[in-house]
């Protein structure tokens, strides 16, 4: 079901991957480092299938945001190739809504930049706001919204790009636990309704397990793919489900092992 | 529970209570809309203090006159200045003085706006231009624009063009610099967000950069107006000529030539009042509107 929705999103060419990351490395120039370069990502190969939900998990500073920026096309890899079906949508930890526009206008700007004719924008923005259950928020200013509402408007704006791939960089990390939990359920619902592919970055193991079909664990310094889990637990999942807890415990153990390696040298 | 096969078709989520829970969270966490302050309160908090301050100045002034700390030709009484004002009003010349200067000032300011805005955009967005003229532009801000009056008179003669030239040299750097610092202060996150939405080149300038820079730009406009007005007054005082018409600067200079201290005081007061009025009527409301719309105005 998700696969067909993704294909009907527009392109006539057969889409086999929403994102294809092949042997990607990234280094940054750092004055003190050996060779003047710090290797942040090393030989990352990762595919995201159409309609798939993948979470990218790793300790802080391991290069998750760097990888997401590369996939978003905001930066270029030092080696390797990245292919995506169209320009991906990107959501940040901070809502990144423009404070000079209302919630609705933020979404309409995304529609406008995508080339949606003026007459259709208002209706489409209303529809997207309704999708994130904020149908009365069109005329609200960003500062009048709560943290959770801002992230939902930001999600609606990202969806307004009508991209087949949604990149999310710890979008719920700054929210309180209850709000975050609610937004997990919303995101899962919207993902199922729209069939969009999601590459979701987090350092929160339970969040990764709750949302994903596949969890990819990144090691630190340099960031490499340490291990991948396929999550077979049926949705809807709850954060306190024993199956979620069990897999989270296993992944946490692995993540701790990765982190401990750095304490030894 | 690490499954080995992937679930490509996710089963339908059914969380019936989600909408209600979410509505509750939204209601609890939303900032209540601020109420409009009633007129009485506005009067008491915004109008009363400055009015009292002015009254106090008048009282002190009158007391100094009564105490004869200085002779009449050095310190005219408030009533003498008031007489000067009502004479000018009755003769119908008062509004002419004010209008001559204000129309010059505003027209010059609009010209400065038209030149300063694209200049600021260029300096902020084109690295070569910034390196080439950025430092000069900010240096010009600290050069008192009176310094331009003598060369402007020599190049352009004693006419309105010379007045406008002096205004432009005073205001353009402020406006351009205001825009530059407004652009520099845009959070990089907005630029990245704009780029992922597909805003590049001119569309980025129009949809992201200019609105993002608006608070800094407005601060620059405000300062630009202050500089316009100051340089105009300097030009009017230094360069008086019969064909220029009598503005507030000439009024002041004429008062000095006629040894009429009351007229000098009247001119100074009018210059001050016009400067404050334009700021209060145009720039402050504009700035408040922009800041309030962005939730940046903290009511005290
Ligand atoms: N533009 C940059 N220049 C130099 N180093 C950078 C840059 N961006 C990120 N890094 C470094 O790359 C590493 C990974 O950063 P990041 O991708 O933000 O980590 P994460 O998102 O996983 O917390 C960090 O050590 C950071 O210092
Ligand atoms: Mg990060």
TrEMBL record, chain A:
GO molecular function, one term: ATP binding
UniProt keyword annotations, A-Z: ATP-binding, Nucleotide-binding, Transport
Keyword Transport on entry: yes
Annotated transmembrane regions: none
Pfam families in alphabetical order: ABC_tran
KW S-adenosyl-L-methionine (keyword) present: no
SMART domains: AAA (SM00382)
Residue ranges annotated for the ABC transporter domain, each copy included: 19-245
PROSITE patterns assigned: ABC_TRANSPORTER_1, ABC_TRANSPORTER_2
Top-level taxonomic group: Bacteria
Protein name (record): ABC transporter ATP-binding protein
From TrEMBL, chain B:
Transport in keyword set: yes
Record's GO cellular component terms: plasma membrane
Gene3D superfamilies: MetI-like
Domain ABC transmembrane type-1 stretches: 98-282
Entry membrane topology: Multi-pass membrane protein
Keyword Transferase attached: no
Swiss-Prot/TrEMBL GO biological process terms: transmembrane transport
Transmembrane portions of the chain: 47-67, 105-124, 136-156, 162-183, 264-284
Superkingdom of the organism of origin: Bacteria
SUPFAM superfamilies cross-referenced by the UniProt entry: MetI-like
Keywords: Cell membrane, Membrane, Transmembrane, Transmembrane helix, Transport
Subcellular localization, as worded in the UniProt entry: Cell membrane
Family to which this protein belongs: Belongs to the binding-protein-dependent transport system permease family.
Name recorded for this polypeptide: Sulfate ABC transporter permease
Organism per entry: Streptomyces fumanus
Organism lineage string: Bacteria, Bacillati, Actinomycetota, Actinomycetes, Kitasatosporales
